[in-house]
TrEMBL record:
Residues 259-387 form the GGDEF domain. This is diguanylate cyclase. It comes from Oryzomicrobium terrae. It comes from the Bacteria. GO terms for cellular component: plasma membrane. The lineage of its organism: Bacteria, Pseudomonadati, Pseudomonadota, Betaproteobacteria, Rhodocyclales.
């Protein structure tokens, strides 16, 4: 038995394994796409994995099928698959997709591979270096989209997937260096411990990347589920349950000696008449428009919600009554300016002060009583709860003539 032995992985077998893994991944992503078609990026990832499977098939059939298919075609679809992976990440993270994000690298690969096959059919080294550079670049661009390009904060799974993409890019860079520093291979599928190791590492990283993508999708679905449980579908504002939870934290802060807060209860004027005259679609549009208007008028730390029906509630933390009235007037004036027949209404507002020792429900009830007075006083105005206002502010109205 010889003292030393050379171990080399069979490259054809490795490419067949890549084919199987990519096919299973494409199937899993296709099912995910079918069940959750609204999630961005999943179609691109499905196409990408399907193309990678096709590329793995072509590479594994080297010398068994026509060279333009196993050399040019396989490498072209392999690069296209990685380009779709990058494009899917961009869409998922809300990054604008560049013109030709898939087409340009695919065409560059096609031109290079076809030219190399015609002019230098045995130039295995050049093809390995080129394809490794293309795939490594696309992997690095995917990591960049995950970490740097999106306005969203990168989560742990974002950073993990980016690390896997960068590891694959580094694997391709190392493959280029080793290929250039070692004797040139005579055949793409020829025995080579280095080439086998690089493809095996790429296979392992590929499996990990698919698991990372599926985890990204799972996290997005969980985020949407959590948002559906805490936000009103129509206005995209927090719902009453979420508002109550947030407001109780403010009550606790005030109980510990914090500054009082102001509570606003708002009701859209003549909302039933709008529904009756123009239909429920017009009513929904009015609610959506007011939800957007309310979000625009509130400060960053203010808490607003759709309280029920056409009622909205706002909590203004650490806000004295006079400042709270200024916020209420800003909302009232904006709603009045935007009111149009069939697409918007004015708003009446009741105001109360949340101080130490008071329960949230008690203060909201005071604001509701003030709102009732505002409705009886002609609507499109602001009323302060008597127990919250000093004598100079009691029954103060802010109305349009």
């Amino acid at each position: 038995m010889p003292a030393t032995a050379t171990f080399a992985l069979d490259l054809r077998t490795l490419h067949l394994v890549i084919l199987i893994v990519a096919m299973v991944s494409a199937g899993a992503l296709s099912l995910t796409w079918r069940r959750h078609p609204a999630i961005p990026g999943v179609p691109d990832w499905t196409y990408g994995m399907a193309l990678m499977a096709l590329g793995g098939l072509g590479l594994s059939l080297r010398d068994l099928i026509w060279d333009p298919l196993s050399v040019v075609g396989a490498n072209v679809v392999l690069v296209a698959g990685h380009a779709y992976l990058w494009q899917g990440i961009s869409r998922f993270r809300g990054v604008p997709v560049l013109p030709g994000q898939v087409l340009v690298p695919t065409l560059i690969t096609f031109v290079f591979q076809l030219t190399a096959l015609i002019l230098a059919p045995n130039w295995v080294l050049g093809r390995i270096v080129f394809i490794s550079a293309m795939i490594g670049s696309l992997e690095a661009l995917g990591a960049y989209a995950l970490l740097c390009q999106a306005s969203q904060t990168a989560t742990i799974i974002n950073r993990t997937l980016a690390a896997l993409l960068l590891a694959d890019a580094l694997n391709n860079l190392t493959r280029i260096a080793i290929t250039l520093l070692t004797p040139a291979p005579n055949h793409y599928l020829g025995p080579s411990i280095f080439q086998g190791a690089f493809i095996l590492i790429a296979l392992i990283l590929g499996i990990a990347k698919v698991l990372g993508i599926l985890t990204l999708i799972s996290d997005r679905l969980q985020e949407e589920l959590n948002r559906a449980a805490t936000h009103d579908f129509l206005t995209q504002l927090p719902n009453r349950r979420a508002f109550s939870h947030q407001a109780q934290q403010e009550v606790s802060r005030i109980a510990r000696g914090g500054a009082p807060a102001t509570v606003l209860l708002l009701d859209l004027d003549h909302f039933k008449d709008l529904n009756d005259a123009y239909g429920h679609n017009a009513g929904d549009a009015a609610l959506q428009a007011f939800g957007q208007l309310l979000s625009t008028c509130l400060r960053q730390h203010d808490q607003g919600c759709r309280y029920g029906g056409e009622e909205f509630c706002v909590l203004l933390p650490e806000t004295p009554l006079a400042e709270g009235l200024a916020v209420a007037e800003r909302i009232r004036a904006a709603a009045a300016a935007a009111a149009r027949p069939g697409c918007g209404t004015t708003v009446s507002i009741g105001v109360a002060l949340l101080g130490a020792g008071q329960r949230l429900e008690e203060v909201i009830n005071q604001a509701d009583q003030a709102l009732y007075v505002a409705k009886r006083s002609g609507r499109n105005c602001i009323e302060v709860a008597p127990c919250a206002a000093p004598p100079t502010l009691t029954r103060t109205q802010h109305s349009l003539s």
